[in-house]
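Checklist before submission:
- one chain only
- standard amino acids only
- sequence pasted in full

Submission:
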Amino acid sequence: MARGWESKEIESQIQSAEERKIARAAITDPAEAERKRQRESLQLQRKRILHDIEQARHPRHRETLEAALEHLDRKLAELG
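Returned file contents:
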């Protein structure tokens, strides 16, 4: 059963990568491409910070991560 789940997850990842590749090819404006790249980068950072917050044990570390999360959310809102 685990193998079936893993293969479906891999299939999903491959499809997602192909969709991103097609979407990038459709963008012709260099400025828009840069904004999209920045947005994707910020979203990946946000995902990592959310994971780190879940794992954080020390309250001050958690506070720092939450401040970073707020900063990323502001940057994402600026990009639209």
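Reviewer check: The two ends are 41 Å apart (CA to CA).
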